[in-house]
Every structure is written in C-alpha cells, then in structure tokens.
Design brief:
alpha/beta, FAD/NAD(P)-binding domain, 5-stranded parallel beta sheet, disordered C terminus, FAD, monooxygenase activity
Length: 444
C-alpha cells in the first residue's frame, strides 16, 4: 500500500461540481489571505465529467447559467461561466442566443475547464474504499482514507477533516436489478452502453424507456432520432407526463437563502414542504419536451402509424431475459389482462440514491451521533471525534430540494470552506520573496 507522507488538512471524496465549487472557495480564501488548507480530492472517474452519459445533443440546462460554481457568491470570480465564455471567445455569441440556459454539453465543458485549474489537487481514477479512524487514547485525532485505482493498487492518505460529495448511486428497481443483463441499461450509462452495444441504425429494433422524468423523456427523444425505424415505448407509472413548475413564484425554493428557512422548520413541516414541491424536481419534464413528444404522437395518428408509444398508468409485473431479448409483462390501469412486450434494449431512467457517504463511514459510525447533518453540512459528532466531516448533496430532508442540485453550490461551498478554516485553524500564507524584498525596502 502506498501511504502519502504528509497529513492533509482536508481530503474530499468525489470531485464533481460540489467539491469543485469547494476547491474554488478554498482558493478564493487563499487569495484573500484568509488562510490556506492543504487538501486533495479523490475521484473515481478517470477525468472530470459531469453526467457524461447524458450529454445528449440538443439538451439544455434547466437552471440559469448564473447559478454556476461561483457567481451567486462572487460574480467577479475568474471561475464564473461568463469568464469561461470570455476566455473561449464566445461571450458575444452566447449573448446573441438570448437564453439563460446553455446546452448541457457547453455547461459540462465549463465545469471541465474550471476543474482543469485544480488538477494538481485531484487524484483521478481512484475509488475510496474505507475511512478508518486513528486514535490517541479515546480520541479520534485523524482519519485514514483508503482508496484503490483500476489496477487494484491501494493508497492511504491521512487527513484532519473530510468532505464527502460522492454524488448519487444509480437506483434500479428490484424487478430489473435481479436480472444482470447488459441489455438493461440505467440512464447513468446510456451513451456508453449504446455505443458499446450498437444496434443497426437502419433496422427496426423494439426499445423501451422506463421512467416519467426529464431523463426518460430526453432518452426517448434521442432513441427516436438515433433509430428512425425503431419502435420506441415510454413506460411510466403516472397517468401522464407531468410538466415541471419553474416560474418565479416557485423557484425561490432553490435559492440559497431558502435553506435557512427550510432547516429551521420542524421535521413534520419539512416533510410536508418536500411533498408539496416534489413536482419541481422529480418525475417531471420540461414543457417543451412534452410538447415535442405530443406532436410526434399526433403526427403518427394522422399517418395511421404506431411506432412510438407512451404507455402510462403502467406497472411492470414481471421481466424475462433470453437470447431473443427482454420481455416485460405490463399491467395497464383499466386493461383486462397483462400484456407481454418484447424489446432488444430497455433503458431504466429511475434516478439515484444518495447513501454512499454513510456506507463509507461504517468504521466510524459507532463514534458518530447517528447521521445527523447540521446547518453548515457537518456531521454531528461528540467532542472526542476531532476531525470535522462534511457532506454535500445528501441533506435533502434537512436542507431542502436544492441540496442535490447546482443551485446552492456557490454558497454552500463557501460555508463549508469557512467552517473548515475556522475549525482547523488558518495557516498564514508564505510571503513571496519579491514581496518580502519590497516590504524590507519600504521599512528601511
């Protein structure tokens, strides 16, 4: 095992947008002479990619470009989306598009450009496997972070604090999960698997997309364009595709200031608010996509065809896989009997689970006070556990619906960076030699 000799002030698990925003916040504090912390990030992907398998042509962001990694905290930051456009000589051209919503491909490029400034702090291609407490007597004084690369080489890093931002784990319903068939593809692997298991673009395969949210609708439209002769079904439990609500009267729930209000409410009120506003983020689709799908379905009726279908109010009762394909046994509300439908590929767009941090902290769990996350995103722990542990993106039930989204990154990262410096103690920055000479000359 390779053990790095130094002790880091902070190790970040994951280097997606959340910890990238933290890297920017820490850099801003260093630039402002507010103190510096030695830190690194460990990322399982071989390079920075944000939802790389869902970077579909023609898909746009669902939030304003102003909710980038830093602008809500510091619009003058060199890491803003506007500065990214200026650096790439596209600022005027973007303005001429008259939109707040860049393409998802462009926003991913912005994130990668930002991440490129911090490559010296990030270890790509490693997966964190364990977090082990280090004791002095009864006190936990540090944490040993174990990771392994794709070749199985293990590394160990000692740290005085942790920030978890591992992202979500693909959620696959039990009826699909028990069938380990490569033709069943979660949306998180969509583009990679479509490329790895190509179908004849001129053929007429039968394809299914399971889910009623934005990703399901985007994949449905992508399959229609990618395989113009295919039969494509969109299977959803709901009675219809539901439009997302994103008007100014409701978007305030994604503002960073709303986090204070939400966190301060009793648990029962928070549950009620999550249920009330769930339709702003889950199992909903942008209105323009719904209109495109509806137009396609109507055009088919005019032509007397049924190549594309939306099978609503449907429950998947059983699944069978054989050499010919995947059979789905479907019960639709009001239908007299179960239908058997055969497909060559099934795309499961059923979202994510966010429990990775708790699993990685299993060896420290007995020292923690449950898995309670405070307002500043720090896990509650008794005094003898000295390393502070922060969690990003796993606090929806306590911090609101925006917690898993990009909307709060700029403010949340600053709150965590400030808490880290306050608790670990800022280290004075080394004065550059030229500045030292100038200062001595002025004194003399």
């Amino acid at each position: 095992m390779n053990t790095e000799p130094q002790t880091y002030d902070m190790v970040g698990v994951g280097f997606g947008p959340s910890n990238l925003a933290l890297a920017i916040a820490l850099d801003a504090m260093r630039q402002a002479s507010a103190g510096t912390l030695t830190h690194c990030f460990i990322e399982r992907q071989p390079q920075f990619t944000w939802h790389g398998d869902m970077l579909l042509p023609g898909t746009d962001m669902q939030i304003s470009f102003l909710k980038d990694l830093v602008s809500l905290r510091d619009p003058t930051s060199p890491y803003s989306f506007i500065n990214y456009l200026r650096r790439h000589n596209r600022l005027e051209a973007f303005i001429n598009q008259k939109t707040f919503f860049p393409s998802r491909i462009e926003f991913n490029d912005y994130l990668r450009w930002s991440a490129g400034h911090f490559e010296q702090n990030c270890h790509y291609g490693e997966s964190v496997t364990r977090v082990v407490p280090e004791y002095q007597g009864a006190d936990v004084v540090a944490l040993q972070v174990h990771s392994a690369d794709a070749a199985g080489r293990e590394r160990q890093r000692r740290t005085r604090s942790l920030v978890f931002a591992p992202g979500g784990r693909p959620f696959i319903p039990a009826s699909f999960a028990k069938h380990r068939d490569p033709r069943i593809i979660h949306s998180s692997r969509y583009l990679s698997e479509i490329a790895r298991q190509p179908l004849d673009a001129a053929g007429a395969p039968a394809l299914a997309v399971v889910g009623g949210g934005q990703s399901a609708a985007e994949i449905f439209l992508d399959l229609v364009a990618r395989y113009p002769n295919a039969k494509v079904d969109l299977i959803l439990r709901g009675s219809t595709l539901k439009p997302s609500e994103d008007g100014p009267s409701i978007n305030h729930i994604f503002d960073p200031d709303y986090t204070d209000y939400f966190f301060g409410q009793p648990e029962q009120v928070r549950r009620s608010l999550l249920a009330e506003f769930r339709h702003t983020n889950y199992a909903v689709v942008d209105s323009d996509l719904i209109e495109r799908i509806s137009a396609m379905l109507y055009a088919q009726r005019v032509l007397g065809q049924e190549r594309l279908r939306v099978l609503s109010s449907s429950t998947i009762e059983q699944l069978q896989c054989d050499q010919d394909g995947i059979s789905i046994y479907l019960q639709q509300a009001g239908a007299p009997q179960i239908r058997q439908l055969a497909y060559q590929r099934v795309i499961v767009a059923t979202g994510y689970q966010r429990d990775t941090s708790q699993a990685l902290l299993a060896e420290l769990e007995h020292e923690l006070e449950g898995f309670t996350i405070g307002r500043n995103y720090q896990l509650a722990a008794p005094r003898h556990v000295q390393p502070p542990i922060f969690v990003q993106g796993s606090s929806e039930t306590t911090h609101g619906l925006a917690d898993t989204l990009l909307s709060v990154l700029a403010i949340r990262s600053h709150e965590i960076a400030r808490a880290l410096v306050e608790q670990l103690g800022p280290k004075p920055l080394a004065m550059p030699q030229l500045a030292k000479r100038q200062l001595l000359e002025e004194i003399q």
